[in-house]
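Hey,
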Amino acid sequence: MPDRGGLRLRGREFVWGSRTYVMGIVNVTPDSFSGDGRVDVESAIVHARAQWDLGADLLDIGGESTRPGHAPVDEATELARVIPVVAAVREQLPSAPISIDSYKPAVVRAAFEAGADVVNCVYGAPDDLLALAVRYEMPFVAMHNQQGTHYDGDVVDAVVTSLERIAAHALSAGIPREAFIVDPGIGFGKTADQNIAVLRGLERLTAIGLPTMLGASRKSTLGKLTGRPPEERIVATAATTALAIASGIDIVRVHDVAAARDAVAVGDAVVRDWRPHPWTE
């Protein structure tokens, strides 16, 4: 796999390909599909601190559910939900890299001013967000998404082609290659069988040569496969983490950080020859 460089965020080194990084989810919403949404600022802050203490490498804070059939929230509501959390987490955890999960420019701008470091957009890389990311020198996560689940041909071909096109545009707009992270969008514009196909084809994603992220945590496809509700899909999510590591994915975005850390410790040891420090035979 070609050298994809790395990032430095809040004094932490992210060297792509050296290990798998864990992004801990902090949902500040009343309608999260996973049942872990925090409806008040204080509980969201407590949860963010817990995710960090459990070993998250980044914290992803979002104020609008993107579950199937979700009701979009207005800008003012999303700002009121996430900005106090971002500001408090930045104050309490000065070394924690923070990602803002939003597609609204005003929210991203305010989050940056409150201390966020990374943009995480579920709708690819719109020009207005790219302009902000370039201006503020923010790394950018772009997820594949589409309306409906129809694809002309193979779903993996479509996802890879779309992300390559989005990435080319983003890089031409001024996002550094090592700072543009692509996500195949498990659960977005895809049926359960299509999600499984994308998981089977993750090596096609990493072959693009950019940093990569997978967000399969607690998704409905895992529930369909196991028959378990969202809060009981920890082991199923760990299976997707293992698949991600074997395919060379750089970041896993998860609800259950402790389980992900264990899966990453074992997977990285086998696939990337990583060892915890100190390590003795």
